[in-house]
Design goal:
Layout lengths: L1 E6 L3 E2 L4 E2 L1 H14 L6 E4 L3 H14 L4 E2 L9 E4 L2 E4 L5 H4 L22 H18 L2 E4 L2 E4 L6 E6 L1 H12 L3 H7 L7 E10 L2 E11 L1 H5 L21
Parallel strand pairs: 1-10, 4-5, 4-10
Antiparallel strand pairs: 1-11, 2-3, 6-7, 8-9, 9-12, 11-12
């Protein structure tokens, strides 16, 4: 089985859609995806993901299944007297806390207990588990019981924050690592495949992460969205 996860195109956050640049990205993405055969297409309910998906759906003549849990991850905490999202934290803070590095303990950090992070995390994890179970792979600890071995190829349009949680669940790693040490730029394609070295037992391996080959092939410069400045003296984004 393969899972293709796509982040939406360059976003117009104010209108929950995509920019003119995002439209160019989405069209190049559609050209690439249309060369594949997907058994099922899933999408976030948010406008920027659905707009991105629309170019592919029209070109490929596909329908889509909308899941609410594919909405951008919305777990919030109380931090420095303000309510804010849980996953945008300065490195000097979170890297000093060992619990953040473990899938089993990151939710035990005091600040993570002050909001609704666990509820939203569980919602995504349950969604992922049910989706994969429907395709024949049932999570059992840190691996998957293979109930129906297959070569299904599914496509998911969503957002960087929730994509990181999806990968966190599938790989049983802390989402803090995925949020901070990886970045999927707009229309980046992440591709996973099952690996069944023992009959009936599988894990998912990452074949590609945030791949932007379609943009480079089309002469489109990748968006900077989700990146931070490389140097502190560079005011691109702090």
């Amino acid at each position: 089985m393969e899972i293709w996860i796509v982040r939406h195109a360059d976003p117009d956050y104010e209108n929950d859609s995509i920019t003119e640049k995002g439209e160019r990205e989405a069209k190049l993405l559609a050209e690439r995806l249309a060369k594949q055969e997907f058994s099922t297409v899933y999408c976030s309910p948010m406008g920027r993901a659905q707009k991105t998906a629309s170019y592919y759906l029209e070109k490929a003549g596909k329908t889509v299944v909308i899941y609410d849990w594919l909405h951008e991850f919305s777990g919030n905490i109380e931090y420095n007297g303000k309510r804010t999202n849980c996953w945008d934290r300065h490195p000097d803070y979170w890297t000093k806390i060992d619990d953040y590095y473990s899938y089993d303990t990151w939710l035990n950090v005091d600040v993570m207990k002050q909001g609704d992070v666990k509820r939203h995390f569980d919602e995504v994890c349950n969604g992922v588990d049910k989706l994969l179970a429907n395709h024949g792979y049932v999570k059992s600890g840190r691996i998957y019981d293979v109930k129906n071995p297959n070569k299904d190829k599914i496509l998911i349009f969503c957002h960087f924050g929730v994509e990181s949680v999806i990968l966190s669940r599938i790989f049983s790693v802390s989402p803090m690592i995925m949020w901070h040490n990886f970045v999927a730029l707009p229309t980046g394609i992440t591709r996973l495949a099952t690996q069944e070295r023992e009959k009936g037992k599988a894990i998912f391996t990452c074949l590609q992460y945030g791949d932007l080959g379609h943009l480079y092939a089309g002469g489109e410069e990748p968006s900077f969205q989700a990146r931070w400045c490389e140097l502190f003296t560079d005011d691109t984004r702090h």
